[in-house]
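From the pipeline queue, job 12 of 40. The input is one protein chain; the requested action is below.

Action: predict structure.
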Amino acid sequence: MRRIALFLFPLLLVACSKDKEQANVAIDINYDSNFKTGCIVMEAVDAANADNVLTNSFDGEKLANQSPPLKLAVLLREGWGTDVRVTVRAHEQSCGGKQVDEQSLVVDLSGTGAKPKRTVELETPDADGDGFVAVSSEAGKGGTDCDDGDAMRNPSQQEVCDDKDNNCAGGADEGLPLVAMFRDVDGDGVGGEAIQHCVPVAGVSGYAMAGGDCKDNDPEVAPGKTELCDEKDNNCDGTTDEGHDKKWYLDDDGDGVPQGPAFTSQCTSPGPKYMKYPSGPPFDCDDADARRAPNKPELCDGIDNNCASVGGVAIDETFTTIGNSCAQGCGTIQCASEASVACNAPEPDLYYQDLDGDGDGVATVIPDVNPKIVCQGAQPPASGYALGLDGDCDDRDSARSSIQAELCDGIDNNCSNGVADEPASCGGTLNQVASHHLSSDNQQWNTVAVHASGYPVWVAGENGKLAVRRSASAKFESFSFGDPATPAPTDGSPAIRPNNCGDIDWRVSWVDSSGRVFLGGAAGALAVHNGTTDACAVGGTGQSAVVTGLVGFGTTGDPVLYVTDSTGRIFRWILGGAVTELEDNAVNYYGLHGLREEFLLAVGGTTGSGSGQRFRSYAVTPGGAATPTSGVHSSNVEGNARAVWMGTDNKACAVGENGAVWRWNGGTPWTRVEPPGGPVTSSFSSVVMRYDAENAQNPLNEHCYMVDSSTNGRLRRLTPSGTWGSGPDLQTNARLHDLAIAPTGDVWVVGEGGRVFHYPEP
């Protein structure tokens, strides 16, 4: 006989190997997930024989440990037909409780193996999770929970005073004792209608133990309430809105002061332009202008802001300086903003005295002179003033000012407390050059000449002394008469240098483009040395007078040179040819210079009656005549002019004995310069005027450097404005005879005692 059985499969439908061929049907039973305390019963009845019945039940303990669906299965058993009716029932609370739902289906167990799964849907709603299923209007369904949304209402609950049927017995608050109280419709804690009612539990509203509410449908109205401005008698005292300001004033311009005195009386604002104004008058004098109202601060705007005017006379009254002249005399005081006044004219230009023309004036206040106050649009000073700059530390030295960049020149260009060349690294300062070829105490250097590139530099002096330095990193080499040959000869020949220029006192020198030095000296001697082992080419003027001036022209090949001597002669010297005398006059020449062959300046002096310093210019025809023109000077100085230097075609400086310094601006006049602080009494021996043809803005253009032959020789710098400049500083205990300045800015000074000074020298 075959058998049928019911099995619970929590996860999967499983059977032993023996039953794998047995027909079976899996059944999933879905129910409410909150249905945990009820019972599900599954009954199987043989459709062919109603006596074959099998029942399984699953109470709350089993349901509590799993979630839907409940997975079951039906297997065919012996003695049963293949059609089996399966009925599934749900009971409230327990298997003996009220049946809340029932579902039936017929399963076919014919054949073998698993049949398609079947699903049963049970309605077991328990939304509040209190274990009771909701009542249903559908016959045969539903439980006993009269309010499935409230866990405190079900047949297991006791009745409390809350206007609810707590125990689902069909009545609210039945059996509870009644007391006297008041109906509190608006819930404000004070009732109106007197009634008999049970004492409500906490949380139940609508009832009050106190009465007297004059309006029980409005929670904002009750005895003891704070009176509000809301058109209601909030405190039930018979008066509405007492104690509240209900006056609304129109403030049309929105300045916080209404026009008044009319007002609108109500609790809420009549509109966006209305305001409360409890202080009362004064009211706005002009409610169409927000800039005007009593007690407003008076502004500087041409309006009576504080409503204080009488006949329009109290306008901007707190700004008492309006209409006055400005402090610097340009314009008048007018309103600049609502809170301030200012001059109605732009700030005047301040022009500071700028004597040296470097664009930087001095700050010293001199009434009506420095600074000059010039109103905008007025004519500025013609010259001698700088606009808006007043930081010049030396207004007579164009190489020094607060706007000047620091240069490598031994001068405090930027007025930084006297410190020169900072912060640049210039490779050294103005120092004496250390060399055993230079520094013999009995050695006197009379002349120095430098190549246009800065090197080589030649020095020459007494007793045939001659030396050259070929580069900044090189040492001086000697070509002096009497110095030993280097290296010493090994063939037994004399150990004296063979390429010296003889035992001659050299007085002047000049270097050509190839680096050769041209020398002039005692007894009219002339020489050329090329700085090699070649013999020095020595010649002369043919005169016994000392050569005192030497300058050459030509950038390629052999130059053409011009020579002067102490008896007033001027010569043209062409290498390989004769030295030609061009002119002889009564002036004893001691200096010669020019920038081009066609025009030369010569200086010197005369002796005897009318003696003193003299100046000549020469118009030269290359290869031809030299036509002299005497210069005119403003005051005679005893002695000789010793040196001259042209910076440009119409600018030159000359110096001489007895502290004489002269400037030439073209033409024939020469003007003596007398710097402030008294005359300089030293006898000047050499001069150079600096001029950078590549840079017209060079602050040292037209500055004259000079040395003197006093026993405490100094290097001095004369500015174009006629004052002695500060730096480069050099003062020695020896006589100084010559100086040269290269276009690179290198400065060379030579003198007695073997002294050679150089800037910049480490």
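Job complete. Residues 1-18 have pLDDT under 50 and may be disordered.
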